[in-house]
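Q: what sequence does this backbone want?
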């Protein structure tokens, strides 16, 4: 009775406990191949589901959008009993090196068709039971040294279509149990056989679909691969051009060759002194071993030159040449030629001798004198230019002053010109003189007469004198009001009637003046001039021919009569 009660209680508790098959929607949890499996494909997850049973052994998250696996990603959601993880096509980019830590019973991981560009070298460290690792179609591009940690049970490694360009010779050094390696459809053109020497159990190696360069660098791997019986599909050469699309097995091993590489030192020009020695070095690499020769001007060198060969290896060596007692006959082009079964490559070096050039040089004193001469010539040129400039400036300034000081001309009548000419020409000593040419109708008088012309400068507004009164006839500034001074003898015995009336004013009274008499000038308050200046007639009239009415001008005062009394010289102002 008691036993039956216990069984019933256990059944009730079992029914009350949650079932692992009741997993988070839309996942489906069920038994598959004897494993507790959670199928969460294309469920829209962006991170790992957190409500799955910790006893889950298989997790399939393919087709979701999980771009990152952080540190201890599976441990944090309690999935430490996983044996298989499938995450194909989830857009995964970043995988932490400790994302799979403590999954000690993990045997298979499939991360194919994602965007992983860098796989850290210690990723999957501690997953020692891992047997299958699939990384197909991730843009990894290269595998570095010791790319994978120690995985003693890893049997299959898939790296197809990963855009691999290089694989380090020690990338798989810790995968000693590897049986199948897939490197198809990458960008590999070369591999080293050393990368596969520790695979004692390797049974399949897929390498087709790569652009192989069939040269000396691939020869060792080619020979190992064909001898290993691992090939299932023929591998095809893509380079060099003459071997394109030819299967490896159809190309002899020695045709997997590298053309020689030639480097000449010194390069490309060597200058040597006549009578000296010179050496050229030629560094050559190539596979198969290249044959090295030296040429001079495209001809084999003769026995007078010494050729030294210092071999460092069959595929890497030096071939040196020395020329002793260099002369003009040794100058020219030297060529190092390296040839093997694939190609012949050459490189040139030119030997030249310095030319002897004779040139006339100046002594130190001569050079200094030449410099002084050049300095003096330059100074003279500068001085002449400055003088020319100053002269031109002075001439320009003088021309401006002349134009500024130039005065307009004044015209005179014929009688005025005759009167002025006579008065200039009839200057005599006191006591003796002549009144000739004073006027055509005047009698010549015995008493000496001295007639001079004085002037009073006019304001700047007055018109300048005519050409007859230029500075060549009269002193500078001798224009304006003209003063004629008449000197007569003071002898009382001289008849005064013999003195001419210069003004010929017979119609007016002739008062007697004792001493000096001066005709009054025209009032200066309202000076008026025409374009000919004040006009004086031969008859003694001072009436001006001016535009405007006669009422505007005051009547002229009566002139004084001539006097020949013994007085001081009289001045008559016109």
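A:
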């Amino acid at each position: 009775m008691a036993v039956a009660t216990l069984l019933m209680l256990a059944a009730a508790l079992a029914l009350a406990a949650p079932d692992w098959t009741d997993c988070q929607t839309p996942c489906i949890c069920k038994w598959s191949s004897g494993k507790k499996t959670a199928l969460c494909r294309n469920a829209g997850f962006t991170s790992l589901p957190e409500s799955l049973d910790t006893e889950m052994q298989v997790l399939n998250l393919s087709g979701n959008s999980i771009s990152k696996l952080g540190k201890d990603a599976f441990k944090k959601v309690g999935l430490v009993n996983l044996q298989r993880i499938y995450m194909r096509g989830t857009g995964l980019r970043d995988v932490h090196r400790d994302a799979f830590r403590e999954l000690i019973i993990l045997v298979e991981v499939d991360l194919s068709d994602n965007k992983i560009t860098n796989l850290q070298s210690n990723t999957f460290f501690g997953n020692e039971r891992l047997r299958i690792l699939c990384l197909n179609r991730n843009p990894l591009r290269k595998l570095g040294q010791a790319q994978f940690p120690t995985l003693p049970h890893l049997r299959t490694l898939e790296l197809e279509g990963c855009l691999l360009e290089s694989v380090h010779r020690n990338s798989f050094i810790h995968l000693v149990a590897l049986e199948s390696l897939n490197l198809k459809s990458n960008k590999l053109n070369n591999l080293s056989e050393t990368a596969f020497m520790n695979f004692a159990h390797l049974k399949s190696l897929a390498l087709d679909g790569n652009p192989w360069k069939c040269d000396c660098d691939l020869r060792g791997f080619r020979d190992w691969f064909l001898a290993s019986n691992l090939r299932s599909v023929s591998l095809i050469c893509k380079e060099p051009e003459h071997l394109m699309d030819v299967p490896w097995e159809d190309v002899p091993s020695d045709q997997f060759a590298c053309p020689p590489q030639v480097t000449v030192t010194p390069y490309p020009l060597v200058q040597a002194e006549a009578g000296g020695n010179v050496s050229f070095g030629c560094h050559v690499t190539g596979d198969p071993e290249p044959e090295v020769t030296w040429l001079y001007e495209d001809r084999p060198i003769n026995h007078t030159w010494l050729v030294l060969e210092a071999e460092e290896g069959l595929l890497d060596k030096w071939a040196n040449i020395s020329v002793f007692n260099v002369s003009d006959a040794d100058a020219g082009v030297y060529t190092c030629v390296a040839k093997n079964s694939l190609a012949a490559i050459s490189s040139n070096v030119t030997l030249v001798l310095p030319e002897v050039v004779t040139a006339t040089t100046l002594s130190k004193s001569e050079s200094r004198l030449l410099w002084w001469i050049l300095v003096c010539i330059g100074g003279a040129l500068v001085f002449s230019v400055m003088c020319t400039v100053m002269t031109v400036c002075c001439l320009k300034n003088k021309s401006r002053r002349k134009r500024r000081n130039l005065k307009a001309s004044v015209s005179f009548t014929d009688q005025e010109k005759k009167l002025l000419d006579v008065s200039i020409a009839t200057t005599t000593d006191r006591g003796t003189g002549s009144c000739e040419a004073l006027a055509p109708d005047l009698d010549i008088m015995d008493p000496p007469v001295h007639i001079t012309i004085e002037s009073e400068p006019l304001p700047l507004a007055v018109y300048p004198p005519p050409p007859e009164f230029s500075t060549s006839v009269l002193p500078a500034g001798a224009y304006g009001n003209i003063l004629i001074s008449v000197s007569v003898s003071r002898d009382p015995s001289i008849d005064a009637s013999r003195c001419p009336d210069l003004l010929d004013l017979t119609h007016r009274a002739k008062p007697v003046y004792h001493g000096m008499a001066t005709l009054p000038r025209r009032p200066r308050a309202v000076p008026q001039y025409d374009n000919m200046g004040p006009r004086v007639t031969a008859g003694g009239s001072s009436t001006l021919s001016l535009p405007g009415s006669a009422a505007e001008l005051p009547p002229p005062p009566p002139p004084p009569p001539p006097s020949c009394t013994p007085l001081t010289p009289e001045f008559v102002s016109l």
